[in-house]
Amino acid sequence: MLPTYQRVGGSSSSTANPLLGRRSFRSREKCLILLVLSTFGFVCLGGFFFLPDNFSADRVLKAYKQFQRAGPEIFIPPPPPAAHGRDEDIHRLDDREKLQEKIRKELPDEFLEKPDVDVGAGAGGAVIVPIGQHPPDEDIPLGGGGAGKGGGPGGPAIEGPAGVVQPPHSAGDEKEEGGEDEEAAGGGQEQEQQAQEPARSGQQPVSQRGSNQHPLTYNSTVGEDPDPAVREKRNKVKEMMVHAWSNYKLYAWGKNELRPLSKRGHSNSIFGSYDLGATIVDGLDTLYLMGLHREFDEARDWVERKFTLENVDADLSVFETNIRFIGGFLTCYALTGDRLFLEKARYVADKLLPAFQTPTGIPYALINVRNGMSKNYGWASGGSSILSEFGTLHLEFAYLSDITGDAVYRDRVQTIRSVLKDIEKPKGLYPNYLNPKTGKWGQQHMSLGALGDSFYEYLLKAWIQSGHEDEEAREMYDEAMQAIIQHMIRSSPSGLMYVSDMKFERLEHKMDHLACFAGGLFGLGGTSLNNQYSERYMEIGEGLTNTCHESYIRTYTRLGPESFRFNDGVEAKALKAQEKYYILRPETFESYFIMWRLTHDQKYRDWGWDAIQALEKHCRTPTGYTGLKNVYLTEPVKDDVQQSFFLAETLKYLYLLFSDDSLLPLDDWVFNTEAHPLPVKDRNPLYRQAPASSAP
């Protein structure tokens, strides 16, 4: 039913709805409408007076200039379809070159911390080389060539600026300098002139680097194995070095390390999060030994102009700063004779000396190099210093005293030696913690892995470095090894030999990756001095190296875990999540290299090549190398850090593994714990001992 309505009022429709019959608005309504219109007009017109003028001619001109400065090809047309096996964007490559050219023209040299780079096609990713230079795999001439003062089979020795001495030349170098490719070599006369004058860019000429004493010139042919297959493997390691270095240079130049996935720098707490160029200093000698002298010159230039500790207001690790920076500089001084590196090594060592000002002479672990304040780690047992840190200073400090004539450095480490020699040792073993104030041991934890490892290494190597004169070091080494053999070395049910940790007289059947250096250490001890221990040392060296290899091949990635255990039916396998990492560590490859040199057993080279393939498959990225978080997974997560020791140690030991014994012979060189080779006294002419008259 429809609703019914009742009319109100009269019958007229106009009277029923008065609004419909009215032809004009009331005055009150007119005012309201006028007010609304006025407000709208005010808002619209006011915008032209009070809002910013984004369309002024000046603003448009500024925007135009910004686009103009960015380059004519800021809007890049889409690239052509990529063919199979070729995914490089040609526009991106071309634009990178143009951008670098603009930067070079517009900025003065002192602002160019990072070397100019260019990107070219390469297998497995971009290969980055300095603009206008030869590709990284080409040999480069090391000098001006021709007869000259002091000439002979090795060529002339020409003094360069800042005490840099030109290296001797081999016959192969002279042939290179003959000018077969005049454009690439720059011409014989031009090259000879460059050998005697600083480069116009201000960079040290290649020919003014090196030593006039050493019989070898370090280029890509030195130390080559006569077997072409071995040479090919060595060249592969060199290419890995170029890949790691070039991407560090591109994305993290001057930073401590590279985050290859993030394409940025990385600094960890051991350097106080300051940018000290750890990868540059750590990788210098590897570049030089591989014949990558152009990259070496770039790194040297950075060290000369940029390396300083003056503004570092943070706690640095005394141990890490010593082995990476002092060790790296000392090696470069030994190889090149360039006094810049000697001065830098002494500069850093002087910054560390206040850490030794303790009642016992045992240094603290950390030092603020700006104010000289030092301390130990808060987590260390009872405020103790750590054995592997204060016990791993002797090689560098003793050598620094000998080449400077200043006994202060040797005195500091000799004080440490005296304390450790005289202190009572439980079961003949050295606990990992020692209080620098009281001279008493802390927690009873003994290890040949983390916290203890390199102390034992430096006992043997101090004796070797001294030309076998430091008998005290050799005796301490033999005594310590006998205690370790008796109390800590064990074998698994299947016969795998391992070195366990001891905590409060109880064994923890776990072996750290860091302890995998011990295979080479025992082998070196067994061959360097023939005594009643030699045969047993060699047997242990082979056994421990084999066990570390087993820890590698029992993972899916064929790379070894951070630590592995021997209990509950488990052998050489990590059980905890934090033990399953692989962070590009070198210790296993160090033992491969040393055991190869001592035995020439082909299996060590085979194991090394297997590891190289695993590194390439799982750790290589288009922008560098990264560690893994779980070596047992088919697709492990990457940790996004290219450690500086990957360039200093891992790649160096693999390169030497596939080199001839003439490259850094073990009788003439001893490696510090960061793989920086130091010359042996009275055997190696590059020891460069200061005249006795200069000693205090």
UniProtKB/TrEMBL annotation:
Main location: membrane
Binding, Ca(2+): 673
Start-end of Polar residues biased regions: 201-222
Biased amino acid composition, Acidic residues: 174-184
Residues at the active site: 320 (proton donor), 453, 562 (proton donor), 587
Entry's transmembrane regions: 31-51
Record-level GO BP terms: carbohydrate metabolic process
Keywords for this protein: Calcium, Disulfide bond, Glycosidase, Hydrolase, Membrane, Metal-binding, Signal-anchor, Transmembrane, Transmembrane helix
Cofactor(s) required, per the database record: Ca(2+)
Record field: compositional bias (Gly residues): 142-157
GO molecular function, a single term: mannosyl-oligosaccharide 1,2-alpha-mannosidase activity
Enzyme Commission numbers on file: 3.2.1.-
Enzyme type, top EC level: hydrolase
Functional pathway: Protein modification; protein glycosylation
Function: Involved in the maturation of Asn-linked oligosaccharides. Progressively trim alpha-1,2-linked mannose residues from Man(9)GlcNAc(2) to produce Man(5)GlcNAc(2).
Official protein name in the record: alpha-1,2-Mannosidase
Organism: Anopheles triannulatus
